[in-house]
Amino acid sequence: MVANINESYNANPLNLMVHNNSYSQRIRMPGYIDVELNAEFGLNAGTGTITVPANHKLAPRLMQCDHDVVPVTAEFNGWRWTGRVDSFEASGKPGRETVTATLIDDKVQLGSVLAFANTRTPLSLQGKSDHQRGPLESVVYHYLSENIARSGLPAYIVMPPKRIEDKSPRIDLSARMTSIDALLRDILNQYDYDVECRMWWPGQPFPEGKVVPLVDGDPHERLRRLTHANIDQVFSPNNNPIQPPTKPGLVVAVRKVRERPHVRFSTRSGEVDSFTLSGKSPGAARQVVGGKSDDWVNEAIHFGIDWAIQGILTAIGGVALGPLGALAGGLVGSWAKSQTEDTVLAFTDRTDVRRAAEMGPFHLREGFTQSSAGTFTFDTSTLAERALLDSQGGKSVTMTMGHSISKVLGDDQRHESGKIRYGYRIGDRVTFEEHLSGTVISDIITGVTVKDNHDERMRISPRIGKRKNTSNPFIDFTDKVNKVTETMRDFGLAT
User: Fold this and answer.
1) d(CA 93, CA 489)
2) Which of 72, 268, 343, 444 is most enclosed, with most CB atoms within 10 A?
3) Which residues, in sequence order, are bridge partners of residue 157?
4) Is domain 259-281+393-464 classified as CATH 2.30.300.10?
């Protein structure tokens, strides 16, 4: 019977918990059949699944996601996963049904916040764009803090260093009603920066550093609080501008990759149960982006056509031709404009010179990405850089860890003897050595999968290296839809 099964599933090594929608109440969740949690680097939202018997005391709560936020959290050795139920499915033979909940982590919140052109004005009075140029940490913080404050999402934002002391790479971004994750994902990926986005509630560890509390108040009050914190950061960077946190909220922080050269995974050590090493050749070394001229270019061309036609009509006696001449001139002008619009300075390109040199004379040559913005806009420049980034080749390895005495997911552990068992997290730069081919990879841990069920011990599978130049069906589909929409806009068939 299901009851007997339920009684046998009592372990909860992940400290799995289900919360109410305000995080003020929570219940631990032993008795699951199996659980899988995935965490990802950057702004890619992790996923997961939980399967429980249908008569589990929390099964009804998991099935409330169609009308309520159902938060789920897990913790292991300082590693934390926070998210929500995205969907569920109840199935099975009568009397032995199971409920499987599909989860998504809290980074999904950043995909539901738009980057406004102007966060301080009403929606009806937006500017051209919010253009930011400067150190990466400061620029990313600007977009996160301004738009989270405006949106009303309860959050604590970890502040970057003073702008003049921010040594992160200089970037150039422009936002206009773009989702936060779409705006920032590629630039973070390019420079190996991570964004942490995890739920905090009283009793949990709170991050060090200066943090802006944006957990309550209306948008105007939150934006004022943000302004005061930014001013304080300039003039009193060593002061903490906030009171101790008391209310649940998302902790959002930009983190640089942590260098951990002493964390070394090797297939010789016996700590790796299995692994998959994969590689992909690079795509085209030259990426062409565009399809639309800037507005000022088209306007200049239109002015030139109008001037030329007017000159021609004047030369042949336009006054004498009367309305017929004006009509003919208008028709010719419209035709000429349609033939010349978006033909001058409508395309730009980026070339990876090093890729072309390394791959030799037969490297793949060119790729194209449609853009609905002008060539000289920052959006188009970003598309070009993204196209080159997406077409990179590279290696990645996914491994399943066995029992390890030298490393563990989460925090460092110190034995009574003084020996340290080093912890690892997503965003750590570590080393992997594969003894058969002699391959050595020094790269970032970009993903972790944790599995636990009643049949075997908990399994942890870290992934080292980015999934470069690989196909994602969902992204491929959305990209195609976006390109079709952009093309329709270019031809005036959509708004």
Assistant:
1) 51
2) 72
3) 212, 252
4) yes
Domain 2-110 has CATH 2.40.10: yes
Number of helical H runs and strand E runs in the chain? 10, 27
CA dist 389 and 381 (Å) reads 13
Distance (Å, rounded) from C-alpha 479 to C-alpha 471? 12
Q: Is 85 helix (H, G, I), strand (E, B) or coil?
A: strand
CA gap 193, 282 in Å, rounded:
22
DSSP 210-271: -EEEESSS-HHHHHHHHHHHHHHHHH-TTS--SPPP-S-EEEEEEEEPEEEEEEEEETTSS-
Instruction: Identify the top-confidence range among 245-249, 304-308, 477-481.
Output: 245-249
**pLDDT tens across 207-247, in order?**
888 899 999 999 999 999 999 988 888 887 776 656 678 89
Instruction: Look at the chain and count its residues.
Output: 495
Q: What percent of the chain has pLDDT over 90?
A: 41
Query: Do the bridges between strand 258-266 and strand 428-434 make them parallel or antiparallel, or are there none, so unpaired?
Result: parallel
User: Which residue has tokens 């982590």?
Assistant: 105
Asked whether this chain's domains 2-110 and 259-281+393-464 adopt the same fold, the reply is: no
| In the block, residue with structure tokens 């789920």 | 72
The span from the CA of 253 to the CA of 208, in Å, is 11
**What letter represents residue 128's amino acid?**
K
Do 32 and 51 contact (CB within 8 A), yes or no?
A: yes
How many CA atoms are closer than 13 Å to the CA of 184, on its beta-carbon side?
Answer: 31
| 218-257 exposure pattern, b = at least 16 Cβ within 10 A, e = fewer | eeeebbebbeebbebbeeeeeeebeeebeebbbbbbbbeb
Q: In sequence order, which ranges of 316-352 are alpha helices (DSSP H)?
A: 318-340
Do residues 110 and 135 make contact, with C-beta atoms less than 8 angstroms apart?
no
Residue for token pair 């460092």: 412
Give the bridge partners for 150, in sequence order: none
Contact 53, 98 (CB under 8 A): yes
- Residue 134 corresponds to which tokens in the numbers above? 């400067």
- Residues 6 or more apart in contact with residue 255 via CB below 8 angstroms: 193, 194, 195, 196, 427
Q: Which residues contact 4 (CB under 8 A, 6 or more apart)?
A: none
Pairing status of strand 79-91 against strand 114-115:
unpaired
Asked if the model's pLDDT at residue 467 lies above 70, the reply is no
The answer to whether 288 and 349 are in contact (CB under 8 A) is: yes
Closest by CA position to 293, among listed 337, 241, 240: 337
